[in-house]
Write a structure and sequence with these properties.
Blueprint: E1 3-7, H1 12-23, E2 27-32, E3 48-52, E4 68-71, H2 78-83, H3 85-106, E5 110-116, E6 132-133, H4 144-159, E7 165-171, E8 173-175, H5 186-196, E9 199-203, E10 209-214, H6 215-227, H7 230-233, E11 236-240, E12 243-246, H8 247-260, E13 266-270, E14 280-281, H9 284-290, H10 298-312, H11 324-341
Parallel strand pairs: 1-2, 1-4, 2-3, 4-5, 5-7, 6-14, 7-11, 8-10, 9-13
Antiparallel strand pairs: 10-12
Helix pairs in contact: 1-6, 3-4, 5-8, 8-10
């Protein structure tokens, strides 16, 4: 049995990837700081080895008996990256390099890195740049999150040699259910808004493009990179997306899927200007090289989302745990308060009295 290390394995994607790996007979070790608790691992906790640690300071022996590493940890969207650029860079770039160096030292050859198609972002309003981009396209990421991912990619590719096999996946915007649920991803946000407001709001009229992919297809893509012959993936970048859609089309598809499961919703365009991301990508390379194609449509994923939200009770839609930036802010506030008060329930420090 092969053992793999999932850095960030209790997160939104990691929880699904861990399940998929276990189903295929892999032994799974998870390294996670558990910012969001163990909820993502609730159904498989007794089947994985969990190491609670910060990816920036991996403990000694973390690579013991490990055959491959998935680095899917770090800060995972623009708001959290902009909120604390220093932590974003430390986790997404420096920790990526440090983990790769440990892999090389310990003889772990395959290192699969979670990058992002947001690297391709061109913004809106420039029709000359509104083209399909592939892994060879020149990119100039501007946002903190995309820039940190791109720099990490460059570092890994420079480390590629006869003893080390880095593989990079640039993923589109992910959708779908995970036990470590998120409602700050566009399809999931639409579903949440349908339940809470009955309306899907299209910022800038929904004209921006986005590559989209279901979370289980993302897990399958990672496993395809793990199981492929080394000469096919070594030092390679692959885009992963089910398809490119304008957000306006996406809203119509979500609306149709929700109607099929008894959740009526209206679409409300908002044409006021705001900064939005827009990009579309080619996935021809991963299909050509690995024969991989995502299969879970938006409609199928939305129906599954609604069913599981109801079954597992993920209807406390305002819970900050489901929104990365809101949760990080709450944790930081709690840390500051506890720094003053000490333990929540045990007797805290008090000033000496005369």
């Amino acid at each position: 049995m092969r053992k793999v290390l999932l850095v960030g394995g209790a997160g939104y994607v990691g929880a699904i990837l861990a399940e998929e790996l276990l189903e295929r007979g892999y032994a799974v070790k998870v390294l996670d700081r558990l910012y969001y608790g163990e909820e993502g691992l609730r159904d498989i906790r007794d089947r994985v080895e969990l190491i609670v640690a910060d990816m920036r300071v991996p403990p000694a022996g973390v690579m013991q008996d490990v055959d491959a590493v998935f680095n899917i940890g770090g800060l995972s969207n623009d708001p959290t990256a902009e909120y604390n650029p220093k932590a974003n860079y430390e986790m997404n770039t420096i920790a990526t390099q440090r983990l790769a160096e440990i892999c090389k030292r310990e003889g772990v050859r395959r290192y699969i890195f979670a990058s992002s198609c947001s690297i391709y972002d061109q913004g809106v309003g420039n029709e000359e740049k509104d083209v399909l981009l592939d892994e060879e396209s020149v990119v100039q990421p501007r946002a903190a999150y995309a820039s940190s991912k791109y720099e990490a990619e460059r570092i890994l590719l420079q480390m590629n040699n006869d003893d080390f096999c880095p593989v990079i996946l640039r993923k589109g915007t992910i959708y779908g259910f995970s036990p470590r649920m998120r409602y700050d991803l566009v399809v999931n946000t639409f579903v949440k808004s349908a339940f809470t407001q009955g309306t899907l709001t299209l910022h800038l009229g929904g004209e921006m493009w986005r590559p989209l992919v279901d979370v289980r297809d993302v897990a399958r893509a990672y496993i395809a990179c793990l199981e492929a012959p080394e000469d096919k993936v070594k030092g390679q970048i692959f885009n992963v997306s089910y398809r490119n859609m304008r957000i306006s089309e996406l809203a119509l598809r979500v609306q149709s899927a929700l109607a099929d499961v008894g959740v009526p919703v209206q679409i409300q365009p908002d044409f006021g200007y705001r900064g939005v991301r827009s990009y579309r990508v080619s996935t021809a390379k991963i299909t050509r090289v690995l024969g991989f194609r995502p299969v879970v449509s938006v409609q199928e994923s939305v129906e599954d989302l609604v069913e599981k939200i109801r079954r597992y009770g993920y209807t406390d839609f305002d819970n900050p745990r489901y929104y990365n930036i809101r949760w990080m802010r709450l944790l930081e506030e709690a840390q500051q308060i506890i720094g003053i008060t000490g333990s929540v329930f045990e007797a805290g420090p008090s000033e000496a009295r005369a």
